[in-house]
Design the sequence.
């Protein structure tokens, strides 16, 4: 079974504006570029991964070398990303000098430790208030063990997103307003960012740091419930899924009175119990589970249905109905599907806010695959059609490349599409870019495959060797299934033909 990626050291800075209102302080937040493959389009605080030389800087008032290195990392990242120099002695530098320092750092003419040394700049731990260490849950392709520091913006320095950075915009915003934007589903952010905003929105009180550190997640305990948008909890559960992914996202969609559970997919008892506890938490506030809904038939999306219903029956005396597309229901025999969901059916959660999800029959990865679209917020539950971790396998005959590309086009054309909540990995904050990338990747592959057939390579195995030179040998068996899916599409498109022994040859247009 695949191992989750090991978390890498990182640091982030929650920068407080000078003379800000202590009841609702302003912080500097940034929007990550939608071009970024990982967490593109997310709102975040400036920060990034530790570099080897970060530990070559001496930090005053700090006798813990690890903490010193993370403070140095935080300061360097803030300088690189938003041009603010959090060192003592930087007040003697002019704006122009700071700019040329930044230029030297980014071009590699001078290292971070050399700069501090050369200009007599000093870091002091007294300027960096530690407010928690958060570890990315083991469902993401990249994981970080991130130290968060609360820092006052030095006088006469104005943060701005630097030219070639990975950030789209940066701005001062009152913590309460930032939180309200999240509440209106206008932004997506990861749990530590939301926790920081919530904590700050309650004011710069004497117990501020205590409140930051009051939850286990601020002490490296991975978060189980991830609320990228309000009312949509992403609850990754460990599953025997296709590597490199190790988890499948179950979604708990809730409002004031009802809960919808999508894809409880773990066959493991400890994970089923964790999910049941998450559902119990939501039910404790007088909510009822309305239905268990399945995006598609694959075991890593359905294996926990029975256990969850056993749990609910024990708790409430009744099982909840299970709903899926008819083509999914036909393939399932381990439990009964009580209701069929067809294309364009609307799932409604009664209560506040009223949540309406339009079902979209989107075959390709599986015949009965469904996506669910919330037109109010632009969120699309994309199942396994687009994922935040790993790649999507199109495996005939249940998988169909032609249908898959049509489904991607249909998803892409949703009028208000703003975010994808996939079956694996983090939310996708740049959905159109991501879907375009998927489509063009498949079409490029198709061209290579067609070229291989035209060169005389006839069987999927031969074609893999020709068209998947970038894929390691051990993945070739799986790639052969994808090639077959492409060949079936090319045959349906009238570009190749298949003989009785399963070999393919090109059809030349007259
Ligand atoms: Zn699947």
Sequence:
């Amino acid at each position: 079974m695949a191992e989750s990626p090991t978390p890498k050291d990182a640091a982030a800075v929650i920068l407080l504006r000078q003379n800000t209102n202590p009841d609702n302080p302003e912080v500097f937040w940034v929007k990550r570029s939608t071009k970024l493959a990982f967490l593109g389009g997310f709102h975040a605080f400036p920060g990034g991964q530790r570099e080897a030389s970060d530990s070559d800087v001496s930090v005053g008032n700090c006798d813990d070398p690890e903490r010193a290195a993370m403070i140095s990392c935080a300061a360097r990242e803030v300088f690189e990303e938003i041009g603010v120099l959090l060192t003592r002695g930087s007040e003697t530098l002019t704006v122009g000098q700071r700019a040329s320092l930044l230029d030297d750092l980014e071009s590699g003419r001078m290292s971070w430790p050399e700069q501090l040394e050369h200009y007599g700049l000093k870091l002091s731990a007294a300027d960096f208030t530690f407010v928690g260490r958060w570890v990315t849950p083991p469902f993401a392709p990249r994981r970080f063990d991130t130290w968060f520091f609360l820092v006052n913006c030095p006088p006469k320095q104005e943060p701005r997103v630097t030219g070639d950075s990975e950030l789209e915009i940066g701005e001062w915003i009152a913590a309460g307003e930032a939180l309200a934007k999240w509440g209106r589903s206008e932004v997506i952010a990861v749990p530590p960012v939301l926790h920081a905003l919530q904590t700050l929105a309650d004011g710069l009180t004497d117990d501020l740091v205590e409140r930051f550190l009051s939850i286990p997640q601020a002490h490296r305990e991975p978060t189980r419930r991830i609320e990228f948008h309000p009312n949509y909890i992403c609850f990754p559960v460990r599953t025997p899924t296709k590597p490199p992914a190790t988890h499948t996202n179950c979604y708990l969609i809730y409002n004031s009175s009802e809960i919808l559970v999508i894809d409880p997919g773990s066959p493991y008892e400890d994970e089923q119990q964790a999910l049941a506890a998450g559902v119990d938490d939501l039910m404790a506030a007088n909510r009822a589970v309305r239905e268990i809904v399945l995006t598609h038939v694959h075991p890593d999306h359905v294996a926990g249905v029975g256990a969850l219903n056993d749990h609910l029956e024990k708790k409430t005396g009744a099982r909840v109905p299970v709903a899926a597309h008819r083509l999914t229901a036909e393939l399932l025999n381990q439990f009964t599907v009580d209701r069929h969901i067809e294309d364009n059916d609307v799932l409604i959660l009664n209560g506040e806010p009223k949540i309406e999800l339009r079902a979209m029959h989107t075959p390709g990865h599986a015949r009965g695959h469904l996506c669910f679209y919330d037109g109010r917020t632009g969120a699309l539950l994309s199942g396994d059609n687009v994922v935040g971790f790993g790649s999507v396998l199109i495996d005939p005959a249940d998988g169909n490349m032609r249908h898959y590309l049509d489904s991607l086009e249909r998803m892409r054309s949703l009028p208000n599409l703003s975010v994808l909540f996939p079956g694996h990995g983090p939310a996708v904050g740049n959905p159109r870019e991501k879907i375009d990338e998927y489509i063009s990747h498949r079409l490029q592959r198709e061209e290579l495959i067609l070229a291989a057939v035209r060169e005389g390579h006839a069987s999927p195995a031969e074609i893999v060797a020709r068209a998947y030179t970038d894929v390691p040998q051990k993945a070739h068996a799986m790639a052969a299934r994808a090639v077959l899916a492409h060949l079936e599409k090319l045959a349906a498109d009238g570009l190749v033909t298949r003989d009785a022994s399963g070999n393919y040859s090109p059809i030349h247009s007259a």
Residues 296, 298, 365, 384 surround zinc ion (CB under 6 Å). The chain is about 30% helix and 25% strand. The first strand starts at residue 8 and ends at 16.
